[in-house]
Amino acid sequence: MTATATLPSVDTPRGVSVGRLLGAEVGWVLRRPRTLVMLGVFALVPVLISIGVAVADGTGQGLIGAVTGNGLMLPVVAITVSLALLLPLAVAMVAADAIAGEAAQGTLRGLLLAPVGRLRLVGMKAFGVLVVATLAVLALAVVGVVAGMVVVGRPEGQLVTLSGTTLGLSDALGRIALVVAWTIGQLAAVGAVALAVSALTEHPSVVIASVLGGLIVFGVLSAIPALEWLQPYLLTTGWTASADVLRDPMPTDGLLSSTLRAVCYLAVGAGLTVFRMLRRDA
Hints:
Layout: H1 18-30, H2 33-56, H3 62-65, H4 74-83, H5 86-105, H6 108-113, H7 118-152, E1 159-160, E2 166-167, H8 169-200, H9 204-222, H10 253-278
Antiparallel strand pairs: 1-2
């Protein structure tokens, strides 16, 4: 009778659920003091605008001047103003830390060697950037609504549009929600491009400089009349379309064209990020 040797069982690593990975990424992003300070700044923007409008007492001009006595216009104005620079900067900072920052600290190698999968890793990082972008826009919108109603005040019709008509509270909040969703889409495109740059470098400052430099270049190009044919291809073209929700009836051409443009930038940025990460040495 021969004895059969039994080999000790070896535990194989179990796959980590996607929910757990995303939760860990979000927790890591939100634990950074820089992220919390950044979100606090966005919550402060509509408060400062509301105080400025209240102090000006109707003497302001332009879109901000229209907020006087029309508090529900404040969140849209705060988002429109912040989209010019502050919101893209916040997204660029998070994207810079997501990949380039990990590489600079030497922790990216461990993530690439972990049994997570590189596509999942890219998805985790993109989700973290999207969460911060969403929280930043929501901070502007929610605080804007509260500050607008408390500090600025509101007319009987709840919201007076730029066209002179009035909208009820539900319609006004619906249009604010539309601006929030549209803005998050624009920031998703910025984040995708920033992640692509982040995957190509080990220096987070390069990512921030590239995004801000790109915004400046796009702004200069859009201001040159001879290059008007180039404007449909610039991501920043149509970023003022958020103010269209303050008109009645609401024009949708600017919102739709800018959304389509953002989808194209999002696809290109995501494709470049995945291409680079799949071929990056561990």
